[in-house]
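Why should sequence recovery work at all? Because a backbone constrains its sequence more than one might expect. Tight turns favour small or flexible residues, buried strands favour hydrophobic ones, and helices have their own preferences. The token representation captures these environments compactly. In the example below, the structure is given first.
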């Protein structure tokens, strides 16, 4: 409960549980839901944790408020996945003043003072964008193609980095033309709406590059509603590799997926245990991502956890 007793140094009632405040972005995508499940499954009482979890509904002010409340409660550790990159220095300084170590999971912050967090664990989003870009350039752009881009949440690390990586990897191929780029906020509904607009404005789209599966799945709905065949008339490439995305890939509606691994819970638990026993961890821990074409998706689907 929140009526005290959870102070640092072990607190009462919880034995020597490690208290962790986790400020999640929201529940915007299948990826995010899988990430939340992974964290909750790993940071259990049985494993020695007292997890306090909040969902910021994709609003930075909610996340800052959650972090402030974890500081006020005197948790042992704070972990969070910043909805956008910038604007965190003030609240992270408050955590530092309170001597509460901060662990960044999944997304980075943009700060000049890297003493404000202990470590950052998550995927290399620029690399994800590069891998999708390389696939598009080598496989889909043997002749001139028009690409539309569905960007993630404006100002978020994955949206910025996946755009950069894709542009880098396609820069030397004059056949790749990005004709429009707009945010769909990592959600299926907004991906659909933005794609409807693109389809009206541009009759000759060849490829959709969606920064996550959910927006790609929204784009499928818009393309089908416009009487076109996803995977044939318009090819779709996405990042994540959640079950619905992998199913659409196996069905031929999506053409290629670069994975973003959401299962960060076990690593987060291990990092905290290491720190708690006086150990040190790397400043940057990069998680491994695979990539899938349609055949690989069919093979992987039966064992896919999320
Ligand atoms: O930060 C990771 C991204 O956030 C995932 O790719 C996306 O699906 C999620 O919303």
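From this structural description, the recovered sequence reads:
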């Amino acid at each position: 409960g929140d009526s005290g007793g959870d102070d640092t140094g072990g607190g009462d009632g919880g034995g020597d549980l490690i208290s962790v405040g986790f400020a999640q972005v929201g529940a915007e995508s299948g990826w995010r839901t899988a990430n939340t499940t992974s964290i909750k499954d790993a940071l259990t009482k049985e494993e020695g944790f007292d997890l306090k979890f909040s969902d910021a509904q994709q609003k930075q002010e909610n996340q800052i408020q959650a972090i402030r409340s974890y500081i006020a409660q005197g948790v042992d550790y704070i972990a969070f996945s910043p909805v956008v990159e910038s604007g965190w220095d003030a609240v992270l300084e408050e955590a530092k003043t309170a001597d509460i170590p901060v662990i960044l999971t999944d997304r980075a912050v943009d700060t000049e003072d890297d003493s404000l967090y202990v470590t950052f664990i998550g995927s290399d989003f620029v690399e994800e964008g590069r891998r999708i870009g390389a696939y598009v350039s080598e496989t889909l752009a043997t002749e001139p193609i028009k690409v539309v881009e569905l960007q993630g949440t404006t100002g978020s690390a994955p949206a910025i980095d996946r755009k950069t990586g894709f542009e880098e990897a396609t820069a030397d191929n004059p056949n790749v033309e990005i004709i429009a780029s707009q945010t769909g906020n990592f959600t299926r509904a907004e991906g659909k709406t933005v794609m409807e607009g693109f389809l009206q404005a541009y009759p000759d789209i060849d490829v959709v590059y969606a920064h996550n599966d959910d927006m790609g799945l929204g784009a499928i709905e818009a393309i089908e509603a416009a009487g076109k065949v996803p995977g044939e008339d318009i090819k779709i490439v996405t990042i994540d590799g959640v079950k619905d995305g992998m199913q659409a890939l196996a069905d031929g509606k999506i053409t290629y997926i670069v994975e973003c691994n959401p299962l960060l819970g076990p690593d987060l638990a291990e990092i905290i245990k290491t720190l708690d026993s006086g150990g040190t961890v790397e400043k940057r821990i990069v998680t491994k991502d695979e990539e899938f074409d349609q055949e690989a998706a069919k093979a992987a689907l039966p064992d896919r956890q999320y």
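A few observations help interpret the result. Residues 1-13 have pLDDT under 50 and may be disordered.
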